[in-house]
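Problem: given the chain below (239 residues), write out its structure.
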Amino acid sequence: MTKPLFLEDAYVRDAQAEVFAVTDEGGIILNETIFYATSGGQPGDSGTLTWQGGTIAIATTVKGEGGSIILVPAEPSALPPVGAHVTQELNWERRHRHMRVHTALHLLSVVIPLPVTGGSIGTEKGRLDFDMPEAPKDKETLEATLNRLIDCDFAITSEWISEEALAANPSLVKTMSVAPPKGAGRVRLVRIGEGENTADLQPCGGTHVRFTSEIGPVRLGKVEKKGKQNRRVYLHLDT
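Solution.
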């Protein structure tokens, strides 16, 4: 199992690790990593690995079996040997933009308080699919409310609860398409705000900014019809 350092601190840009294994397809598994693996609509991280005698570009990161995280090289190249000590370095600009979009989408689920049926995160924009039979008629008001929440400069923190506690509080789960991971005995919650000023609290294994002000101004894009009950709402970073 790879230790996911990004859950402890999403702002670590480089770190040391040891090569635990190399897959038959040429993927690299470290004992611990700062690279986020593709899941929950958030793309896997890219960056570089460097070791004595070599360096390799990492195109993306995916989940493997048994809790492993696999770093996928950008192109065939010499791989670090098992047991090698490596320096991992993120493509930080790309990751941070994913963090900004991801946190903004959590707030979008606040201003549109409907069940979420899907989502996707990019560097310039993201989207959420809602169980929404009719398109919103007040998109400008929703956008203004969303930007006001961002300007509140809420702190974003994470905490853990037991699977039993989550089962007893099903309203915490907003996503209909992706269930929180089970089997580990506990589930990670991401909180925006604190105490009585909590704006949002939901299960999430992704990476987020520390304060909502880091998101910057956003705008709502087009709303697409996706089936009888679903509407896809796009959100764009303005900077």
